Amino acid sequence: DGALNGLRDANAKLTEDIERERRLEKMRRRFVSSVSHELKNPISMIQAYADGLRHNIAKDPEAMAEYAEIISDESDKMASLIKDLLDLSAYESGTFTINKAWFDFASLVKESSERQKKLFDEKGVGLETRLPEKAMIYGDALRMEQILSNFLANALRHSDEGGKVKVSLENSREGSRLRVYNTGSPIEENEIENIWTSFYKIRNSGLDPAAGTGLGLAIVRAIVDLHGGSYGVGNTEKGVAFWVEIPNENTKE
Fold this sequence. Notes:
The protein has 253 residues and is of the alpha+beta class. The chain is 54% helix and 19% strand. It is built from 6 helices and 8 strands; from the N terminus they run ααβαββαββααβββ.
């Protein structure tokens, strides 16, 4: 009986190992496919407009400047995508690091929101903030700003002209909570869990499939996990609200 039980256990472990390898291989194939897809569009754009400059299709200075600007914009998109990929790779391999120090989260949110307001004005979307005078937390300021930037980019992308985005920060006994709300269509319940997964994009969102990389919220998840915090999203009566919370052991009055 002991030998049979041992054999069954060994077979069960072997089956489990094989299944795990299959899942990992499937993830690797999906990852390579997703990266190839995301890089294909900016590379094609850069190549097309570079060829236009090389073959003098853009003859006047204004057209040449427009071509150069498009090449620069697409290069920035590629650089951002590669940075996000490196961050996620570091997180999954356990080498993603954060540098904690005390900083005023309220001041960071205020300054970062003000810097990005021009993008909202250009699209005709309102950006409002409701912040305490001060909110000291012990964390990585650059990474927390990365969370806010990803939330704001996501909110702007899903807001129509005339819409509103509201940023709030609240302190409580549980911790410091950042919330970003945008008017717009709700997220289907069966998609809420998936949106924190790398490369996932909401279906039937009405957006250009090339919009966004599907990495921003996965990076938010990684940063919050390393701060020992929590994150979430919920539909409201007229929109969607994303939030993160840094636990009270990382906050002080």
